[in-house]
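ok so i was messing around last nite and threw this chain in just to see what happens. nothing serious, just curious
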Amino acid sequence: MWHSRRAEKTSQKNKDIDQRLSGNPDGATIDPTELKRDWAERGYGCEIWTDVPGPERKDFVHGTDELVMLKEGDIEITFQGNTVRPKLGEDVYIPAGAMHTVRNVGSTHSRWYYRYRQKR
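result:
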């Protein structure tokens, strides 16, 4: 089962970020510095990936949890029998060991933040 940002709230700061992101229904404005800080507090790194239309990143499995957040474009993520199309600024939580596929299903490039839970 996939979990959105709303399912993973752990602090008032996360709620504040959710409120800021949801305040722009036509597209979330994501402050990369704030996002990196938020994810670091939750135990994740933060990098960005850019893809042209069409590619499919298929059947990945990682030994640690992963977060993906859409920055621009249109992607589809399939894992654990579910396919989700995240909204701009929405976290998608992919648990460790879950085989997953990410597709750029839009007509333009897509960019998303991603990273894995850091081992402590």
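not much to say yet. The first helix runs from residue 12 to 22.
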